[in-house]
Specification:
- By secondary structure, the chain is α+β, with helices and mostly antiparallel strands.
- It has five helices and 14 strands.
- Strands 1, 2, 3, 5, 6, 7 and 9 form a seven-stranded antiparallel beta sheet that branches.
- The protein is elongated, with a radius of gyration of 21 Å.
- The N terminus is likely disordered.
Length: 253
């Protein structure tokens, strides 16, 4: 197999062969714990956890960012899964974070290393010195919440048709996909409400098999985007009913 670097500063694409049957939506966040390694090997009980947040990079990969204080030093740490990123280095990930303006360094370089979480999964961990004894070494515009070792239950939105339709993927606090919905914008005054057709993981798997039938490329997102380029939400509901796919309807923002 050709030895190819799959990443660069501006775009890091997941390597489909490395993902296997899984998709970008299955990329994990780290399971954190007090016994985990800390900045420059300082024991976790010698630090003060300030806060954390979780989000997604432009390539769809989720990241976790933490902020902590270690003996007078304030540090932020980014965690990004290595899954599906064959040939991508920690330096590539660091450049990718900076390119997306997640942090800016003034007079320091990050410490980059492999991090293994409680479930034995590999992540890139990037530690960046923010402050030390009153001196500022870097900054980040990312808002953080009160620290927690758990995950934020969240959703991931994928645009299917500009301004009209989107796919929403819902995760629980363990970063497991709980359900999906295909949403269409409602024709109200503010254009902020969506009618969502909610499918369980099982029903979405059935829909995926249906829409990618006979295709060598099993890309449900592209199939949905192609579908909504020529079809309406009413057509989509008719499709669900025709093939007896169970769904719930609800209004969301």
């Amino acid at each position: 197999m050709e030895n190819k670097n799959w990443g660069n500063t501006y775009t890091i694409e997941p390597w489909k062969e490395a993902l296997g049957k899984e998709t970008i939506l299955d990329i994990p966040l780290p399971e954190r714990g007090p016994e985990d390694p800390s900045f420059r090997g300082i024991k976790d009980n010698e630090s003060k956890k300030v806060g954390y947040t979780e989000g997604r990079l432009k390539n769809g990969y989720p990241y976790r960012m933490e902020c902590a204080e270690y003996k007078g030093a304030k540090v932020i740490s980014f965690f990004v899964s290595k899954k599906g990123l064959a040939g991508v280095t920690g330096e590539d990930i660091d450049k990718y974070l900076r390119y997306q303006d997640l942090y800016e360094a003034y007079n320091s370089e990050p410490e980059i290393y492999t991090y293994i979480d409680k479930s034995g999964r590999d992540f890139w961990r990037i530690d960046i010195l923010l402050e030390l004894e009153g001196d500022i070494f870097s900054s980040s515009p990312v808002s953080i919440e009160e620290f927690s070792y758990s995950h934020i239950a969240h959703e991931f939105r994928i645009l299917l048709k500009e301004g009209r339709s989107l796919l929403k993927v819902y995760y629980d606090k363990s970063n497991t996909i709980k359900e999906y919905s295909v949403c269409s914008q409602k024709d109200d005054l503010f254009k902020q409400k969506f009618t969502c057709y909610v499918l369980s993981v099982l029903e979405m798997n059935k829909l995926s098999a249906l829409m990618t039938l006979g295709r060598s490329e099993k890309n449900l997102i592209k199939e949905l985007q192609d579908y909504f380029s020529i079809n309406s939400s009413e057509d989509f509901v008719s499709l669900l009913k025709e093939y007896s796919l169970a769904y719930r309807e609800r209004e969301e923002m």
